[in-house]
Amino acid sequence: MPRFQLLPAEVGFYDWFEKGAVTARDAARLLSELLRDYRDVEGRVLQISELEHQGDFIVHETMSLLSKTFITPLEGDEIRALVSSVDDVIDWIDDAADSLLLYEIEQPAPEALALAELLEQSTDRIVEAMPLLRSRKTLPQVHRWTVEINRLENEADRVLRQGLARLVKERGEWFEFERWKDVFEKIEEATDKCEDVADVLQAVATKNA
């Protein structure tokens, strides 16, 4: 049951939630664009890293706001879970991008691009869902987007298995298998983290509707 209150809650939290979602979407989009048009890798990975720093800033500012706010629109644990889960998505995107440099990838594998496109779609859904938290009237609509994020994560699992099966079948060099396995798994892990965001969104929507 929503808490009874006489004074309005601090709505600035919603701004930070939405900024975090957009930052994750922008990072996923940059990764997808890089794998689609593979050039200036170092410069574009640096752009993703800058978004990762921006994500950290959003977490810091949200926690700072929480520490000095008496009346919050959601429970403190819910606020922490939302910003932390979105930041995890950004962190894994940054890790995936870094791995392209670490392993000196010359040309992306098709499964990496497919995973990145699914990741971008997942973050798009998070961006769509986040503003729905602002009103009790729109909270039930969150479910539509969380279901879609879960579907996309299941599809990413399938692409990961498909990519690993191809690598095994080709029986190439062990290093080739290991580096692509790591790249695939990091991008897929980012989609797992999107599913974590969806779980938090659904829990918040159910509790506060």
Key words describing this protein structure:
209 residues; mainly alpha; Methane Monooxygenase Hydroxylase, Chain G, domain 1; 6 helices; 78% helix; elongated; disordered N terminus
In short:
By secondary structure, this protein is mainly α.
How does this structure look, described?
This protein has helices at residues 12-36, 41-67, 76-102, 110-129, 142-170, 174-208. 78% of the residues lie in helices and 0% in strands. The model is unreliable at 1-7 (pLDDT under 50). The protein has one domain (12-208): Methane Monooxygenase Hydroxylase, Chain G, domain 1. It is built from six helices and no strands. The longest helix is centred in the C-terminal third of the chain and has 35 residues, at 174-208. Helix 4 (110-129) packs parallel to helix 6. 40% of the residues are buried. The chain starts with 11 loop residues before the first helix and ends with a helix. It has 209 residues and is mainly α.
